[in-house]
Design goal:
The protein is mostly helical. It has one domain. Helix content is 70%, strand content 0%. The protein contains four helices and no strands. Helix 2 (22-55) crosses helix 4 (71-79) and helix 3 packs across helix 4. The protein is elongated, with a radius of gyration of 17 Å. The two termini are 28 Å apart. The relative contact order is 0.10.
């Protein structure tokens, strides 16, 4: 089962893929990717603030477990350190 966001993204990808002019298709793809990256940064900021708030009275390991991650993941996220894994963020 898909949700509205997934459906919307799939529709946008199909719309961009259908653009015949190669330059216009490339520009459209860049624009959509920029929009996704901006939203990803905003969501990351929300997640960072939540982790920082949850840390009050908890260990990093406890906070990490709440997200089914490690304590080092939670600590790095709260500190704003970038992950070396590209799959953690949409932006490149």
């Amino acid at each position: 089962m898909t949700d509205a966001l997934t459906d919307s993204l799939e529709a946008k990808v199909a719309e961009v893929a259908a653009i015949e002019d190669l330059v216009q298709r490339g520009k459209a793809a860049r624009k959509v990717r920029d929009q996704i990256a901006a939203s990803d940064r905003a969501l990351l900021a929300i997640q960072r603030a939540v982790v920082q708030e949850l840390r009050k009275g908890r260990t990093w390991a406890e906070v990490g477990r709440l997200f089914e991650r490690t304590g080092s993941w939670a600590e790095a996220l709260a500190a704003g350190r970038k992950s070396s894994r590209k799959s953690d963020h949409a932006s490149e």
